[in-house]
Design goal:
Elements (H helix, E strand, L loop, with lengths): L8 H10 L39 H8 L1
Length: 66
């Protein structure tokens, strides 16, 4: 509080950043790009194995399956 005023600049900046989409797409029906090879998923599948799990996160997957 400065001179009986509340500084809300940080709060507003935080809310603006939170509104930015985590995954930017060109349209709502866009499938995006493959995170492994960068292929355009709208044109077709790329052939990358998407079922493989990072070994560091494998224990978390086990927790979700229980």
């Amino acid at each position: 509080i400065i001179d009986d005023r509340i500084d809300i600049c940080r709060v507003i900046a935080e809310q603006i950043v939170l509104q930015i989409p985590m995954k930017t797409l060109c349209s709502d029906d866009c499938k995006g790009l493959c995170s492994r090879c960068g292929a355009d998923l709208n044109a077709g599948t790329c052939g990358c194995d998407r079922d493989s799990v990072d070994p560091r996160l494998a224990k978390l997957k086990d927790l979700l399956e229980k």
